Amino acid sequence: EVEEKLQNALAEKVTAVIPDAMIDREVEAMVRDGESRMQMQGLDFKTYLQYFGMDLDGYKAQVRPPALTRVKTELALEKIAELEKIEITDEAIDAEYNTIASAYNVEVDYAKANLPAEEIRHSLTIRAALDAVKATAKVTYLESAPVAENADNE
User: What is the pLDDT of residues 61-120, one digit of tens each?
Assistant: First the structure.
């Protein structure tokens, strides 16, 4: 939850106009992720959408606002990585390939053949930038919601 709030706060700080092509690319990635999740559960994605009274265009419209937030967050984290001079070593990339291979029960060579090293490097860079933000963020927990003062009682 804290990580999500940090990501949303980062996204809110991005004031640049985001090209539709970047948002569309993220929407398509979210569709692919949804299809993969449903497939891993043995469900057909279109059937899943129909169950909720939605078609693919409706789903894309629904995920567009979160896609915009994701794009803005990634742009902010890329800038943070640049400013913080975050560098990902080849050893870290190899370790990530091992982690992925283990998680999906495939050979490391298969993971390397199907996931470009630059994609892994980018993912690790974004993760490191987010870790840097989390390490320096000041998080405040409230015991209860603040009570608004009533102007009539003054």
Answer: 999 999 999 999 999 999 999 999 999 999 999 999 999 999 988 899 999 999 999 999
Contact status, residue 113 vs residue 101, Cβ threshold 8 Å: no
For 19-45, how does the pLDDT look when each residue is reduced to its tens digit (9 = 90+)?
999 999 999 999 999 998 888 788 899
Give the C-alpha separation, 23 to 72, whole Å. 9
What is the amino acid identity at position 79? K
Q: What is the value of pTM for the model shown?
A: 0.78
Residues 6+ apart with CB under 8 A from 30: 63, 66, 67, 70
Write out the DSSP string of 80-131: HHHHTT----HHHHHHHHHHHHHHHT--HHHHHHHS-HHHHHHHHHHHHHHH
Residue 2: count other Cβ atoms within 10 Å of its Cβ.
Answer: 10
Burial string for 50-82 (b: 16+ CB within 10 Å, else e) reads eeeeeeeeebbeebbeebbbbbbbbbbbeebbe
